[in-house]
Description:
By secondary structure, this protein is α/β, with parallel strands linked by helices. Helices cover about 45% and strands about 20% of the residues.
Amino acid sequence: xxxxxxxxxxxxxxxxxxxxxxxxxxxxxxxxxxxxxxxxxxxxxxxxxxxxxxxxxxxxxxxxxxxxxxxxxxxxxxxxxxxxxxxxxxxxxxxxxxxxxxxxxxxxxxxxxxxxxxxxxxxxxxxxxxxxxxxxxxxxxxxxxxxxxxxxxxxxxxx
Length: 159
């Protein structure tokens, strides 16, 4: 099974890019992992809620254009379901056992994910009720995917 992290925006800071690359390297022994970036759109200061919704929708169109019909899609959202690391490992294991072709984790831009994307998602995952910069959230997700793969492989990973 292939697993993708599809995110709005680039990892611009060198430290985040290095951490993400390290986890992607570690994950490569467990299967095909890819990172897909779509452009984030500029938002003007003081944008109205309607303008923000338009930006989320347009970013969402870029996301939706990268999804395939058979993908299982997990959107990272603050109100989504919180899972423990073993529960995330179980979700990945179940997707593999069901013959899922590709599991895609979505990370929105600074305004979050549009309703068009949330409608396509199979489920929503929350890393916390707190808000994190999307660059940090991406590294945290990659670390949790690595932890999940180690759990599923029966290997030790510090708690």
